[in-house]
Write a structure and sequence with these properties.
76 residues, AbrB/MazE/SpoVT family DNA-binding domain-containing protein, DNA binding, two-stranded antiparallel sheet, SpoVT-AbrB_dom, alpha+beta, 3 helices, SpoVT-AbrB_sf
Length: 76
């Protein structure tokens, strides 16, 4: 595997999958004892990040989840 002139490298798909790295994932690098370490930044999975961003977003409408689902399904 080669590093491009811009310092880019492709992380193999299997490693990305195991590490939970999806497009737009934030990562961080560390150099320790001659080894470069790449890890997900913040320690949260992409799903955890999404949930924390969405948490409380819809509470302003003043309806419960059940009420919203009833309306979505046609008021039944």
């Amino acid at each position: 595997m080669r590093i491009t002139s811009k310092g880019q490298v492709t992380i193999p798909a299997g490693i990305r999958r195991q590490a939970g790295l999806l497009p737009a994932s934030e990562v961080e690098f560390e150099y320790r004892d001659g080894v470069v370490i790449l890890r997900r930044a913040g320690g949260k999975t992409r799903g955890e990040e999404l949930v924390s961003r969405l948490r409380g977003m819809f509470s302003a409408c003043g309806k419960s989840t059940d009420e919203i689902m009833r309306e979505t399904r046609g008021g039944e």
